[in-house]
Specification:
This protein is an alpha/beta fold. The chain has three domains: 139 residues, 3-Layer(aba) Sandwich (Rossmann fold), CATH 3.40.50; 144 residues, Rossmann fold (3-Layer(aba) Sandwich), CATH 3.40.50; 183 residues, 3-Layer(aba) Sandwich (Aminopeptidase). Helices cover 41% and strands 18% of the residues. The two termini are 41 Å apart.
């Protein structure tokens, strides 16, 4: 695992900061005041740095169950107030991430994670087992800070979504719903649907007759999933690895975005050998453990959910429909003109920061520089008087695609630098980049900017983004060191890619007639 640069882990043991004696009689205001003073160094850290801070806290201490049988103990009240204050801080500071150690340690037994001998001998409250569990619990949090979650859960049908083989026993005799294993399979579907509602795409990869599978979806009363929950599917007798490759192409996603769940160990091993980029899960042997297994997966978990996350499946289905219609169109200009596209810019306010961070973290193909800004960094950029930053939203005949683009430009005098220019792959092919550049140019001219620099950093995956520059008036630039524009640029950003420049006074952007008048 590669941890984010300069990330800080603070292990907070409440008893090291607050003595349990003397808490009796304190009201919540008194507790908040005492705890706020103890958390002041943490608050100073997250206010002074945009680098990630992870607080792993525990309020566990030995207590009698009888003492809290009729009312919460003073220590329990202090623990709850600590949790509330920490989450209040995190809500206001995007660089702060929290880990409830008591919940993380409970899997192995909280009491076994602590060792009084270690505390009195060396000042460490944890046992060796507890330290190992602490490290294991912190690792996925640091991984998520450094990398975006997986995007697609590809599911087998027989043996996963329901028990038995539908093609052999029929819809009415598969194990689904009721009690026992049937209930477990329905709960597998419910767990998958929860992932879908949080933004994970669901796909079906099943060796089956398609009519049999869709009959279960349409007719079985205990199906928790519906057709609308499924973003892509391949239901046939082709090898599942080949089908995943086809679905990845349809969705315009990398295979490393996929997670594969199958009840057959032979199919799982074939997938690992054929497509090592795909994360192939090794589920528990007992199907009754599968709902909890899916719920506990860190692969799809994210720190924040946005309105766009809940609409992911419909957005990707719309993208597939757009691609099909475009392939059948004889006149592309007329086709695009008939989409009734309406673009709109949106500020990076509190509601937009989470989506902006998602776009910066996971957009690879249409991303000029691959600058992976955190929410805290984005908030600082948006607040700077020398920065223009906005999201782009798009609607068309295929639906509301939500916030699909992020643009950031830094300004120094009459020079600006395109810090971030990225767009979701699901809206490619609509010339939305033209509208975004036009909107940016208007704002830059209003600020007295004439020269706009852009940098292309070749990641091996973003060639489509590099092509936007020359197609919209930018030209390669290798100005002399003494050029005033280079000096201004040096104060805006270090450059290690290919540099391009455009004169905003002469810039003419094509394709703007494809877009309806939009509010900004």
């Amino acid at each position: 695992m590669t941890a984010p640069a300069e990330a800080l882990l603070w292990v907070l043991v409440l008893e090291d900061l607050l003595a349990p004696e003397g808490l009796e009689g304190l009201d919540e205001a008194d507790l908040d005041d005492a705890l706020s003073r103890l958390l002041a160094p943490l608050e100073a850290r997250v206010d002074a740095s945009t680098q990630p801070t992870v607080v792993a806290w525990t309020a566990w201490r030995p207590q009698s169950a009888i003492a809290s049988a009729r009312r919460p103990s003073s220590w329990s009240r202090a623990a709850r107030r600590l949790e509330a204050l920490l989450y209040r801080l995190a809500a206001q500071r995007p660089a702060l991430h929290l880990l409830d150690l008591d919940a993380a340690l409970a899997a192995d037994g909280v009491e076994a994670a602590f060792d009084a001998r270690n505390f009195y001998a060396a000042g460490c409250r944890f046992s060796r087992k507890g330290l190992a569990r602490l490290a294991a619990a912190v690792e996925p949090v640091l991984q998520r800070i450094a990398a975006a979650p997986k995007k697609v859960l590809a599911l087998d049908c027989d043996g996963v979504l329901w028990g038995d083989v539908v093609g052999e026993v029929g819809v009415g005799r598969i194990l689904l719903g009721g009690d026992g294993l049937g209930r477990a399979h329905r709960d597998v579907q419910r767990a998958a649907r929860r992932l879908s509602q949080a933004g994970t795409l669901l796909a079906l990869a099943s060796k089956n007759n398609a009519a049999d599978v869709w009959e279960v979806f349409d007719r079985h009363p205990d199906m928790a999933l519906t057709r609308d929950d499924i973003a892509a599917w391949r239901i046939d007798w082709t090898e599942k690895a080949a089908n995943l490759m086809e679905m990845a192409k349809d969705l315009d996603l990398g295979l490393d975005s996929f997670v594969f769940l199958d009840d057959n160990p032979f199919e799982r091993e074939k997938m690992r050998l054929a497509l090592p980029q795909v994360t192939t899960l090794e589920p528990p042997a007992d199907v009754t453990a599968w709902p909890g297994f899916i719920d506990s997966l860190d692969l799809f978990a994210r720190f924040d959910s946005t309105p766009e996350d809940a609409a992911k499946a419909q957005q990707y289905r719309s993208r597939a429909a757009f691609a099909d219609a475009r392939r059948g169109a004889t006149d592309e200009t007329s086709f695009l003109g008939g989409l009734e596209m309406e673009a709109q810019s949106a500020a990076l306010d509190a509601t937009g920061l989470a989506r902006a961070e998602q776009l910066a973290a996971k957009t690879n193909q249409y991303n000029l520089r691959n600058a992976r800004h955190t929410a805290a960094e984005l908030a600082a950029l948006a607040a700077s008087p020398n920065t223009i930053a906005f999201l782009t939203r798009l609607k068309d005949r295929y639906g509301d695609h939500g916030a699909v683009g992020l643009t950031i430009a830094r300004i120094a005098g009459d020079v600006a630098f395109l810090d971030s220019f990225l767009m979701s792959c699901r809206v490619l092919g609509r010339h939305l980049e033209a509208w975004i550049l036009s909107r940016l140019a208007v704002q830059l001219r209003d600020r007295g900017v004439r020269w706009l620099f852009a940098e292309f950093r070749d990641s091996g995956r973003n060639a489509v983004a590099g092509a936007v520059l020359t197609a919209h008036g930018f030209a390669p630039w290798r100005g002399a060191d003494g050029d005033a524009r280079r000096q201004a640029l040096a104060g805006l950003s270090p450059i290690d890619g290919e540099l391009y420049l455009v004169d905003l006074d002469t810039l003419i952007i094509p394709h703007l007639d494809l877009f309806n008048a939009a509010r900004s």
